[in-house]
């Protein structure tokens, strides 16, 4: 019974992991991405205008 | 209680039977011990060939018409888990415990209980460190005696049995009655093969070879059948079913399905949204004008997706850093990163050596559609005797970059739990085989020598 519950929990983790993978691919999310995103205030946009 | 249970046709011994001698009731005989005069009850008359007097421990020969005193033993009293005379209903059969025996091998002891039912004959229960096995004789030997010694594994009744143990056991203590002329000190060679929950055991004595099938029984079932206290298991029995086997199978099935689905999801996005070049250019590592080199503006359309900037410079014993910024003209948000390239090579006492790379790439996460500029600021410097790199730099910006980091992270996350379950499953097996000289879970093979030593006696 306990092992069935553990399998259920593991199945939930699997569904969450697959959901995360789908979301990451759909939104272009990059784990450990190299680029730092800057807000307008901190960007160099003003320099190029 | 089981005393009143009908033993499938064999009448019960009433409490008063023990006081009488001669034939008391059909099926149960009481005798007078020729050694001490004590009363001896024979529960399987006509079947048993020896009975032990409970008063003086003499083993009485029941083969002839007169009871003969075989030999008297001085043996310690060990209370049996199932007292002699106890009846129980085990898997639909009423069985009476008529004999109790302690056997030993190199100082290690276990208990064997002889059960009797006139309709099905004799059965055994083996008790060892809290574990129980129900034993039934096998009429047709799975292997010949010689092959049993030499065979690692064989298939019997659709199961593959693995050789587990070869050893010599001796009878250390007897109580009750037996269907052969039992003697303390009787030695037999044992060959055990396991396929949980079963074990096939070949016992080879001076004059016969007996094959027995043992089935592992949970202590609770024995306790319920014979109305005894549940025994506490110690260690792992040779043929004890692995309690993690079902869990392992389920977990691996779930993991396999999830991994296949993860691969399908990843492949779907790679195929449905292939990487597309957005902008590529060749710039100089030594620009004539100060400030960053600006590429664009260019338009990025479609869904929010990752981008990748691939950079190549034919470096030769030089290094190059490129500070890059992808700037959204509409929102003024920007993505900054630095790319580093270096490549060195030469000759030393070991010959040609080479390190570094002329290529690099960077991923930019979640870039929405819009009008963008790519700002690049190359920088290089002195490297040994070489001056700064001033050659061309090829840059290419791609849309729909596919990062494997999320995919690999998900795969790792999916594998952690199944690995833990498998380790636990395997550690049970390892523990189960640690008493076997044929364990496949240890590298030490010195135990095989002891098995070889037996071959001379048993062949």
Radius of gyration of chain B: 40 Å
The topology string of helices and strands of chain B comes to EEEEEEEEEEEHEEEEEHHEEEEEEEEEHH
Biggest sheet architecture of chain B: 8 strands, antiparallel, barrel
Helix content of chain B: 10-25%
> Shape of chain B from CA axes?
rod-shaped
Summing up helix and strand content along with how strands pair, one would put the structural category of chain B as alpha+beta
By DSSP, the count of extended strands of chain B is 25
Q: Gist?
A:
Chain A has 2 helices and 1 strand. Chain A is mostly helical.
Secondary structure topology:
The complex is a heterodimer of chains A (49) and B (459).
Chain A: H1 2-27, E1 36-38, H2 45-48
Chain B: E1 22-25, E2 28-32, E3 39-42, E4 50-52, E5 58-61, E6 68-72, E7 87-90, E8 93-105, E9 108-117, E10 121-128, E11 131-137, H1 145-150, E12 153-156, E13 159-178, E14 187-195, E15 198-204, E16 209-217, H2 219-226, H3 245-272, E17 276-284, E18 293-300, E19 305-312, E20 318-328, E21 334-348, E22 351-357, E23 359-367, E24 370-379, E25 392-399, H4 404-432, H5 447-458
Antiparallel strand pairs in B: 1-2, 2-3, 4-5, 4-13, 5-6, 7-8, 8-9, 8-13, 9-10, 10-11, 11-16, 12-13, 13-14, 14-15, 15-16, 17-25, 18-24, 19-23, 19-25, 20-21, 20-24, 21-22
Helix pairs in contact in B: 3-4
Walkthrough of the structure:
The complex is a heterodimer of chains A (49) and B (459). Chain A has helices spanning 2-27, 45-48, and one strand at 36-38. The model of chain A is unreliable at 45-49 (pLDDT under 50). By secondary structure, chain A is mainly α. With 459 residues, chain B is of the alpha+beta class. An 8-stranded antiparallel β-barrel of chain B has the order 8-9-10-11-16-15-14-13. In chain B, strands 18-24-20-21-22 form a 5-stranded antiparallel β-sheet, with no helix packed on it. In chain B, a hairpin with a 3-residue loop joins strand 9 (108-117) and strand 10 (121-128). Chain B is rod-shaped. In chain B, 31% of the residues are buried.
């Amino acid at each position: 019974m306990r092992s069935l519950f553990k399998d259920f929990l593991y199945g939930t983790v699997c569904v969450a992991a697959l959901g995360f993978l789908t979301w990451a691919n759909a939104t272009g999310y990059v784990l450990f991405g190299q680029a730092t995103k800057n807000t307008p205030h901190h960007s160099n946009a003003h320099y190029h205008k | 209680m089981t005393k009143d249970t009908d033993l499938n046709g064999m009448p019960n011994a009433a409490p008063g039977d023990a006081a009488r001698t001669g034939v008391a009731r059909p099926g149960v005989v009481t005798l007078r011990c020729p050694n001490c005069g004590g009363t001896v009850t024979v529960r399987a008359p006509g079947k048993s060939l020896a009975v032990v007097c409970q008063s003086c421990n003499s083993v009485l020969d029941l083969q002839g018409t007169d009871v003969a005193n075989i030999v008297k033993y001085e043996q310690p009293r060990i209370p049996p888990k199932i007292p002699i005379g106890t009846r129980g209903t085990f898997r639909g059969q009423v069985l009476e415990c008529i004999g109790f025996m302690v056997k030993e091998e190199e100082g290690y002891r276990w208990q064997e209980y002889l059960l009797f039912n006139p309709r099905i004959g004799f059965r055994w229960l083996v008790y060892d460190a809290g574990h129980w096995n129900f034993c039934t004789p096998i009429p047709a030997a799975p292997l010949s005696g010689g092959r049993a010694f030499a065979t690692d594994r064989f298939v019997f009744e659709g199961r593959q049995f693995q050789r587990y143990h070869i050893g010599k056991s001796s009878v250390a203590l007897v109580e009750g009655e037996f269907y052969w002329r039992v003697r303390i000190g009787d030695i037999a060679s044992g060959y055990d093969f396991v396929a949980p929950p079963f074990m096939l055991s070949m016992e080879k004595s001076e004059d016969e070879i007996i094959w027995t099938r043992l089935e592992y029984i949970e202590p609770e079932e024995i306790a319920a059948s014979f109305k005894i206290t549940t025994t506490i298991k110690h260690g792992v029995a040779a043929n004890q079913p692995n309690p993690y086997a079902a869990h392992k199978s389920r977990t691996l099935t779930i993991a396999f399905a999830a991994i296949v689905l993860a691969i399908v999801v990843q492949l779907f996005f790679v195929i449905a949204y292939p990487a597309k070049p957005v902008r590529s250019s060749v710039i100089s590592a030594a620009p004539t004008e100060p400030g960053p080199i600006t590429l664009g503006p260019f338009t990025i359309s479609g869904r929010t997706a990752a981008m990748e900037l691939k950079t190549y410079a034919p470096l030769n014993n030089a290094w190059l850093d490129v500070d890059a910024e992808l700037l959204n003209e509409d929102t003024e948000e920007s993505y900054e990163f630095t790319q580093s390239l270096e490549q060195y090579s030469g000759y030393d006492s070991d010959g040609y050596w080479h390190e570094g790379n002329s290529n690099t790439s960077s991923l930019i996460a979640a870039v929405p559609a819009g009008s963008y500029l790519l700002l690049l600021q190359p920088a290089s410097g002195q490297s040994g005797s070489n001056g700064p790199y001033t050659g061309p730099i090829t840059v290419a910006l791609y849309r729909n970059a596919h990062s494997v980091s999320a995919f690999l992270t998900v795969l790792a996350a999916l594998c952690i739990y199944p690995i833990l379950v498998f380790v636990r499953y395997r550690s049970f097996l390892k523990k189960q085989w640690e008493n076997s000289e044929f364990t496949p879970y240890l590298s030490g093979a010195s135990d095989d020598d002891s098995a070889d030593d037996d071959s001379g006696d048993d062949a």
